[in-house]
Write a structure and sequence with these properties.
The chain has about 90 residues and is of the alpha+beta class. Strands 1-2-3-4-5 form a five-stranded antiparallel sheet, with helices on one face. The protein contains one helix and five strands. The radius of gyration is 14 Å and the shape is globular. The mean pLDDT is about 85.
Length: about 90
């Protein structure tokens, strides 16, 4: 998968890794499930954002601000996690 580095709100560098890119109901908007490692690389956070391209064509991860959209995305991620757990 794709690895990347972000700067968080505290101006700390964090290593991330894209786990999954998906869409909802065939819409053009792409969502990303990614892990963001803490400094010790033992613990990580799972985060969902949507992808947006800047004027130069670079991918930007954006927060999902719309509450209904966020609920829908969270339910999809829960289903994905439950499905993955069944396959283990």
């Amino acid at each position: 998968m794709d690895k990347f580095t972000v700067i968080n709100e505290n101006y700390e560098f964090k290593d991330g890794e894209v786990l999954l890119i998906f869409t909802i109901n065939g819409k053009d908007k792409e969502y990303v499930l990614y892990s963001l490692y803490n400094n010790n690389e033992v613990n990580c956070s799972l985060i969902v954002a949507y992808l947006e391209k800047d004027e130069k064509g670079y991918d930007i991860l954006k927060d999902i601000d719309d509450l209904e959209e966020r609920k829908q995305v969270i339910e999809i991620v829960k289903d994905i996690i439950k499905g993955a757990a069944k396959n283990e």
